[in-house]
Amino acid sequence: xxxxxxxxxxxxxxxxxxxxxxxxxxxxxxxxxxxxxxxxxxxxxxxxxxxxxxxxxxxxxxxxxxxxxxxxxxxxxxxxxxxxxxxxxxxxxxxxxxx
Length: 99
Known about the structure:
Helices cover 42% and strands 19% of the residues. It has 99 residues and is of the alpha+beta class.
């Protein structure tokens, strides 16, 4: 929902800049709106490329002693390491069944 709202803002800013430019409004305002909208659009459209899915490739994964609580889910996570590639993998720790 927020992503769509930010995209809409970026599109409206770019369209508004073009409309103001055609109407002969001050170039500074047009430039500001256009650059602002373009940067917002680029950031939202290309931010997905920064994040990679969790490693799922088979390999010689070695568990490390590292554990941490994921701040977004509150889930305890363990860290695995692949010495061949240097990749790290974060896996949820399964809770132990209660006896």
